[in-house]
Protein 1
Amino acid sequence: RGGIVKRTALKAYANVRQSGLIAVGLKENDRLLGVTLTDGNDDLLLVTRLGHCIRFSEQDARDMGRAAAGVKGIELAEGDEVIAVARVGMIADQDGDPMTEEPSLALLTITSKGYGKRTPIDEYRVQPESGKMRSQSRGGKGRVDINLTDKNGESVVAMVVRPGEDIVVITRQGQLVRTSCADIR
């Protein structure tokens, strides 16, 4: 949740002892948010509670041993934390440059007061004045994902969605809502 990412080869976790393995060195007051299996060429999205998102190549984080703490994935503002991590598959275009495998993907962000926003996944890439779109570099502040106000609250969850998918949202009081992702702006 503290914005640190770590990349480790899956084979490093192959021989699990009965007492377990050290998987990551966490700093005090930090928690492991999630683990994502990648193919070595993917982009990663980190989304924060205060409405920011960064997209960077997984290759920006060098391969590390199991006990390593990791490297900064996103620069967090005071009081902010990462709420979601998502993988974006990448392939090479005809010139060999990286491009999103499924350009129709979108990042769906839901706030604490029930508001949702769907953003095309490639809007989190950088368009330089000259040249092709590229992912950001790891360790920056990212881009604004959603403008937060008293009306909509803080971001509580974010996920990558595909066209035609439905989502189910459940409140803490147990109210369940199912809706099509296409119905969310």
Note: The first strand starts at residue 4 and ends at 5.
Protein 2
Amino acid sequence: SAMGWTTGTSSPWIKSFAVKEIEKPDESICRYAVTFTWTDSTNATYDSIQYITVKNTEGSWLVGAIEKIDVKGEITKVTLGDDNQIKSVFVEGKTTEAAYGEATVFIAADTKIYQGYTNTEMKPEDLKTGTSVEVNFKDGPMLMIYPPQAEAAVIRVF
């Protein structure tokens, strides 16, 4: 700039990516993990993973979902609100596929709960202790304590 200011490094960019088929629940659905390797002007690298679900809809393969996995594991605690409805679940699972090893996941009115990688909707009361889940947090505010606390956009139940 005119004053000679600099931010120190350039914005990161994608250096490479790798696509891996990870699940094919049936002939009309396929799920891929796309690992992006990012770099910047310092040559530092880090990976991020997006999960892409494609569906065969009347002969055309279309993207059904693009999700990241913020936490993946087993529900170890279910917390009810004053209305006796499920307010949150605590998920624990040590996996490199997820951003966090554990998290408190808040259930909002617009949280989508699906059976596996299908679009079959489930209800909050289907979330029980011992249930395996993958959670994609909503974009927006998140309590940056550990373990993190955030509202779920999507919960997939396995």
Note: The radius of gyration is 18 Å.
